Amino acid sequence: MRNKRSNHVVKALSVAICSTVLFMASSGIVFADKNDLKAPKNAEKISYNAKAEVDSIQTFLLDSIASKDNKEIANSIAAVTKKNLTATTENISKLLKGKWNSKKGQAEVKGILVKYLLFTQKAKLGFTKIISEGINDVVIPSDLSLKVKSKINLDITGNSKDDRGVKFMIKSLKIVQNLVTSLNQENVVTLKLNNLLVPKFEFNRLENYPFVTSSVTEVFQTMNTLPFDGDFDSFTSYYTKYFDTCSIYEAISFLYLLKDNNIPYQLALE
């Protein structure tokens, strides 16, 4: 049975609409021409099993946020100085274990910490914030579209089967949403429905909140193998365009991903 935790927007609006759409679609009742339910012919072709080279700092970030010791790692990074660099390197390497605790791994951690010391203050705060928050509490529903999941995983981790990609994206959205919600009731994601009830997602560029988005941009800019330019605006544009290529079923599955992680969205009719 689906997780019933939801905010008032999801409970009042989305469940009824999405249930209706799914029921009618599965019952063979057609809202739109079949072409409307398929990705456009010129849509991006995705190699689900391809792997892109991910640099050490991006791998370090992903391993840190997925670690059970993520908070301690974040605190160690935040406290690093030139004087305690060696001791901090050894501590973090032990916490991460595996390849990071080898001689080569420790050298990589040290190099990453040296780069961290050169970050701007916003970049440092964003970097340690995402690690401290962690991603192990993110829920990925079993009915999330394989195409959507594989695409996001590949974009973020370089591996379509590495679910830390989806978890990283959702946790990033949640952090931004929480920051914006504390200031204003504005949502990061908008779900638009046309007269055929075909959903379309739009990621809010949050132009009125540069102090929020700039922190996310600083984190993205530490990740050198993302498929979009390293800023929040490019991130929102990229995924808005991507979901335009998705079918109704794929889009609805992403909606449930948001719902299961208590991320609100705005409902709008075109």
Automatic annotation (TrEMBL):
It comes from Pseudobacteroides cellulosolvens ATCC 35603 = DSM 2933. This is Uncharacterized protein. Keywords: Signal. The lineage of its organism: Bacteria, Bacillati, Bacillota, Clostridia, Eubacteriales. Residues 1-32 form the signal peptide.
